[in-house]
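pasting input
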Amino acid sequence: MTTLSMDTAARLADAGHKAAAALDVRMNIAIVDQAGHLLHFSRKEDALLGCIDLAQRKAKTAILFRMPTAALGEISRPDGPIYGIEWSNGGLISFGGGLPITDTEGRVVGAVGVSGGTADQDVEIARACLAAL
Amino acid sequence: MTTLSMDTAARLADAGHKAAAALDVRMNIAIVDQAGHLLHFSRKEDALLGCIDLAQRKAKTAILFRMPTAALGEISRPDGPIYGIEWSNGGLISFGGGLPITDTEGRVVGAVGVSGGTADQDVEIARACLAAL
Amino acid sequence: MTTLSMDTAARLADAGHKAAAALDVRMNIAIVDQAGHLLHFSRKEDALLGCIDLAQRKAKTAILFRMPTAALGEISRPDGPIYGIEWSNGGLISFGGGLPITDTEGRVVGAVGVSGGTADQDVEIARACLAAL
Amino acid sequence: MTTLSMDTAARLADAGHKAAAALDVRMNIAIVDQAGHLLHFSRKEDALLGCIDLAQRKAKTAILFRMPTAALGEISRPDGPIYGIEWSNGGLISFGGGLPITDTEGRVVGAVGVSGGTADQDVEIARACLAAL
């Protein structure tokens, strides 16, 4: 797989929403392609409205730097080497919930961004999405 | 139905993509809720990248004024009574492809925006989405 | 060729600037990849400053809709079927000077945007870029 | 030299990309003129997409304050005298990778911004660009 299909993206999102239901949280899940363009977005009704943008920014951040958003956050704090990187690219999000999607050959083919719960819950659901790959 | 659910939105989008496949066009389909917030978005791989934004703007335009985008376009041309309305609300789209979604009691509960083909094709697919309601 | 390399982009730009020198105009030349991300930009010193943005927008417009910007302009005028499309995608440019770049198998692999002269000159230079492919 | 030419900018960028190849990193290199306007940009294929914007912002930051971006960062941290300056000018970047370009008479004639590796690597490549002056 070198290109993420719409159907695969929908399958990943479904897996995330199922895992979120088990946690009793309502999530926004965004999936972008290799170049950062939105491929799929879904919001459980009544999920936090502010998280529509967050989910998309997390996915964008993860693909732009090909790393989990939480990993970026570890080096972008005031005492880190890339403090303030969130200013770039129209606004990045550097806490947990964004993960690159890697194919079986190790190529980054997209990213998922989850928002709606705590940062820890968001990460857990993002992982649930990837597990469906 | 007074609220559009995520599952209903996904069903509408699926119907649209199936109809698009029959036309051999690749579509971006956005569905927003009653308040204009994105509920569901899906892009067939290889659909035109410029239509990611267009689909969302069409859905937004349709819900903001509770009318088809093409109907807005008829009165927003240079000789129309609301010429230039596209400047408002961060940018509207006033050609075909955006339609309000109405429940069985006639209440507007959301809107769909379709982009990827000609304006006529976009309208046809938006109608196919609504037919799945 | 399925991916446009930095070196190829530089070669195309050089060809454009040489052709521009023959016309005695000073150009801004932007080249984006298949996904619309900037790959190469070069501005002849003393070229019009307002054309830095125009060149990049033309290249972006051409790749987002996989067509020459002038072709988009023909259908986006007040009496055209997609009037007002320039509102989308953060601002499009729909007059001449943006051209898709197609590989030998007919796949669109990027786009070039030229700005600095008249629209006709911009188109001529964009063609000169493509001729160097 | 009081004005940075397109050809000189291209030469500086080439030197940077050669040095980056020796480090086995893929870089985005932006060069702006004395007024902060983009003169040259080049991205090695497969370089991180998030660094397209970063490279340009670093160059912009370096020319706006006529100092290395890392030097600005030393005084813009939470305990520094100009904390929060990154909010200004549409978003600045205050970690390493942006350097002013100075002519033989000591006048600042432009700036280079490099992004794609670690901040240390970015600084090293920015210096390699200047060494080609």
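fyi Helices of chain D lie at 6-23, 50-64, 69-76, 119-131.
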